[in-house]
């Protein structure tokens, strides 16, 4: 719809918060999630690898503990995201904390995954915000355009 189109103009549809463990990535993604929950006219989803932050996330956000779904490969994780979008056409943004743990592959091998995420963004009008725990010196070249 028109409102959704206006919200998205000029925005990067995949955004990555990248940094070492303890650098404040999780606090930032939680704050972004809660802010989006207040302003979005669409459903907001927060995916994590455990329930540790369930009470830090606004109650209107769909909190998902991905470890409950036995995701073993990057392909399974992509299928998980596709399944989520196929059952709810009103998802506007998906926040993913602990992305590297959930992806279960080396970031340097994840270029294909990001290309698929871009396709999901375009086809389903959804944004992704990812928190990636890694030394910035190890940032893959293809990810530089997604950093926020």
Describe the secondary-structure layout.
Blueprint: H1 2-8, E1 14-19, H2 25-39, E2 43-48, E3 62-65, H3 74-87, E4 91-96, H4 99-103, H5 111-124, E5 127-133
Parallel strand pairs: 1-5, 2-3, 2-4, 4-5
Helix pairs in contact: 3-5
The secondary structure category is: alpha/beta
Neighbour order of strands in the largest sheet? 1-5-4-2-3
Low-confidence stretches: 1-8
CA(first)-CA(last) distance: 26 Å
Task: Let me know the largest β-sheet.
Answer: 5 strands, parallel
Which band does the percent of strand residues land in?
15-25%
Helix content: 25-40%
Order of helical and strand elements: HEHEEHEHHE
Instruction: Write down how many β-strands occur, each being a DSSP E stretch of 2 or more residues.
Output: 5
Shape: globular
Number of helical segments?
5
Tell me the Rg in angstroms: 14 Å
Average pLDDT, all residues: 92
Keywords:
148 residues, 5-stranded parallel beta sheet, 5 strands, 20% strand, alpha/beta, 5 helices, globular, single chain
Describe this structure in words.
The chain is an alpha/beta fold. The chain is 37% helix and 20% strand. The chain has five helices and five strands. The protein has helices spanning 2-8, 25-39, 74-87, 99-103, 111-124; strands at residues 14-19, 43-48, 62-65, 91-96, 127-133. Strands 1-5-4-2-3 form a five-stranded parallel sheet. Helix 3 packs parallel to helix 5. The protein starts with a helix and ends in a 15-residue tail after the last strand. 23% of the residues are buried.
């Amino acid at each position: 719809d028109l409102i959704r189109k206006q919200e998205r103009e000029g925005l990067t549809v995949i955004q990555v918060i990248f940094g070492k463990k303890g650098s404040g990535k999780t606090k930032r993604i939680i704050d972004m999630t809660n802010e989006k929950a207040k302003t979005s006219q669409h459903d907001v989803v927060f995916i994590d690898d455990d329930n540790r932050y369930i009470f830090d996330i606004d109650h209107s956000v769909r909190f998902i503990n991905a470890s409950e779904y036995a995701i073993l490969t990057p392909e399974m994780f992509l299928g998980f995201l596709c399944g989520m979008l196929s059952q709810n056409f009103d998802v506007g943004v998906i926040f993913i904390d602990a992305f590297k743990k959930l992806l279960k592959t080396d970031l340097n091998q994840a270029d294909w995954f990001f290309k698929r995420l871009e396709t999901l963004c375009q086809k389903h009008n959804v944004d992704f915000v990812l928190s990636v725990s890694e030394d910035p010196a190890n940032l893959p070249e293809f990810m530089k355009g997604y950093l926020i």
